[in-house]
What does this fold into?
Amino acid sequence: MTVHHPQTPQFFLTSPSPCPYLRGQAERKVFTHLVGERAPGLLDLLSQGGFRRSQNIAYRPACESCRACISVRILVDEFKPSRSMRRIMTRNRDLVGRMGVPAPSSEQYSLFRHYLDDRHTHGGMSEMSVLDYAMMVEDSQVDTRLVQYRLRGPDSFFSDQSDGDLVGVALSDVMGDGMSMVYSFFEPGERVRSLGTYMILDHIERTRKLGLPYLYLGYWVNGSSKMDYKIRFQPQEHLMPKGWERYEG
It folds into this structure.
């Protein structure tokens, strides 16, 4: 009979399912639960091993015949934006980002649905209800923050009551060695702003101000055009078989 210590996490393996990134591949994931007082420390440890968080679950790919998913983290103290990134930052000077507790709203869900309907019509999240969205935001036992990006109002420097329309949202965790962008979405009609890039640039600066060395971006999938944008933020480290290795492609 196997006896598990109450503080020892138990890991489980999902059944194979079609890979959302590479045609013809099947994906499997290994996962464990993040519950109780040990959840923040366990997330810190597992993130260093390539795990990601979704609600109160930590998971990582465990595919039998593919190793295309590579964990990526940005070295924030060494990062310097490219010329095109600086233009994006300038283009979005009229936005204000406010970081607060992970509290869902109908305004957020409306933007979330607009984003999914434009970008991920057939994705795994396309059928999420307002209750599903609320669970995604609220169901966390670690230090999770919600950053909302709005058009700057005339008195935005003094009060958040004067902020304008919501154009982007990022759900992020604060860990012992960095921030982790769990999920983000934005107004798809504002293509000229490159809001996805802008929110990553903003998180790099937020991570630096917190005195933390890394911004975790999740997985770069070699061969998937959907994930190519992550390689642009360098220098960065990739989790390889021997550990985290510097990457500057």
